[in-house]
Design brief:
Chain lengths: 389, 389
Amino acid sequence: MIMREVAVVGVGLSKFGERWDAGLKELMAEAGVAAIEDAHISSNDVEMLFGGTMASGRFMGQEHIAALMSDQLGFKNVPAVRIENACASGGSALRLGYISVASGIHDIVVVGGVEKMTDVTSAEAGTALGGAGDQEWELFQGITFPGLYAMMAKRHMYEYGTTEEQLASVAVKNHDNAYKNRYAQFHKKISVQDVLDSKMVSDPLKLLDCSPISDGAAALVLAPLEVAKKYNDTPIRILASEQASDTLRLAERDSLSGIKATSIAAQKAYKHARITARDIDIAEVHDCFTIAEVMAMEDLGFYQKGKAAKAIADGETALNGKISVNTSGGLKGCGHPVGATGVKQAVEVVWQLRGDAADRQVKGADMGLTHNVGGSGATAVVHVFARAD
Amino acid sequence: MIMREVAVVGVGLSKFGERWDAGLKELMAEAGVAAIEDAHISSNDVEMLFGGTMASGRFMGQEHIAALMSDQLGFKNVPAVRIENACASGGSALRLGYISVASGIHDIVVVGGVEKMTDVTSAEAGTALGGAGDQEWELFQGITFPGLYAMMAKRHMYEYGTTEEQLASVAVKNHDNAYKNRYAQFHKKISVQDVLDSKMVSDPLKLLDCSPISDGAAALVLAPLEVAKKYNDTPIRILASEQASDTLRLAERDSLSGIKATSIAAQKAYKHARITARDIDIAEVHDCFTIAEVMAMEDLGFYQKGKAAKAIADGETALNGKISVNTSGGLKGCGHPVGATGVKQAVEVVWQLRGDAADRQVKGADMGLTHNVGGSGATAVVHVFARAD
């Protein structure tokens, strides 16, 4: 089957953080208008909207978010669909936007992601996020998300000798990158010792091993590659868009020290794009907890199993390292408004490939990858991007 | 752009109602397994899953529902995505399933819809459903969904002289049809007087003008038309799949006596299918309230504006009438588990077109339509189906 090639022709981001100044609608408008202007289109040109959000119902009492987003951005009665796949809502929305352009059914498609998480208490937010796991078998029994990832961390440490210091180095690197990103929630460098000294959340994960509760939105404009230059001088091509799932319950997985859905989605993406992991220059990976970035680096094929933690601690994945990972600051440093994250990852990669990443620009960034995980790994979405010229 | 034709090759439904015997997982399994068996496939054959649910987060504490559905049905690490568009979640999921098969990216796709609504109080359910409208401008101000539709009913009565008796006749017809459907929530015939005598909910809508709170699930298996006979002797072709949106807030609409998103989606669907409304033999339309069915009959082009209510009261849309509408019993009689409804509508149309609708079979049903609305009309999805032979 011949499908059309798809390109990103516009990107937009809201400031991430505790956005007491903005509600759901304002955040969507901030990112959406920026993306539309970046693509040099008017809102009348948009033919379909995909909106990713995880739990706007529980955070804000608001479902039906894509129709709201379409209305708010002045789109003309276009089909609008909300996508929810826990923390992978944004990545899944991007994949469906890609399919709808590739299919030939729609030309100009907007993919948005948003979450407004700070209008509820931390406890309420934690409960809402718990809905990403198996409510009956995990959350109702008392475990929270840090607990699920802590079990994975313990297993990874047991199998491969991964240390708490190595995990901490993920957070240190991502705060370093976030320091250079004006959209990031945190602009504060931290040390390994700061992480180790921070409050224990779920052994071995401490507060600074965990991504924060955040407000934020992100948006992309997609178009067929063949006409992409009409909209933007530097269109970024989507080389692959793949997704996989696994059991919702951690207890039923083949392994606790890796995320199988990531491996499957990555292998399919490399095959579709006819590349290997070695071709990737920059990657935004899903570091909801520091252990998650370690597993991602292995499951994506950047490092052999058990080898990533030391490499990260040695600086191989820092800005302009062997591979530059989470140049935006990642979920840890840039913030993690869950529905927006998967879309924000693509925005960062587009900026890097265009050469528009300012102080955090990676030299010679030609090919980039995004990796977005839902829950404890029941969903994983992998996209590969490259400059179109 | 040449796309592939798409067919429905399997359908499944759970019993609708107050299902104290079943949770979310059991309902999904009931419908999903039936659809898979109906398509004569194994769960290993499925390549992608779309799961529609509106508010499982608020009803059950469970998000990430598509991954759960995929896990529960034994699918093999396939991409699974939850679609939420309020009460049009199921219809929107079907449209994305259609696009993903039409695009050539996936062959065998399952579309499921589910909602488990009776584990919370009616007040909690009403608040959760309120998330389908504009939380800040409508719900927070105190109006509920019956209130929004009551305003539309009042306006329709003012503009066209529609009467409460005519509205009541919608509920009477749909209970008549549900009486013949073993999957329906209600098996109780009612009279116009019963409706008029029932408790006032929001003037002029009384209890029996309103669809109920329900548990239930529905599922479809889609395949490329060219290979559909491999799976089912009577594949049903999807002739058109269209969707439109409108402002989330009722106050900003052009008209209160019709749903513009329905008209737009219907006109696009007729154009795509190269038919007119007159070619449709059977239709499942979105009767969340009796006034909604009256507006649907007009907005879909079956009747001129202001003419549908009398025609319904005169029996023109009864089983084997001029056009047979809501043969399943509709949302009113069959029940309205919100995320399942749009998928259930397609299941009923497939049964009718196959000639498998038992006591409620419409004679000579060759072409059918489904019409699924989100909220007070910010989303509308229209599908047209026909026998493939």
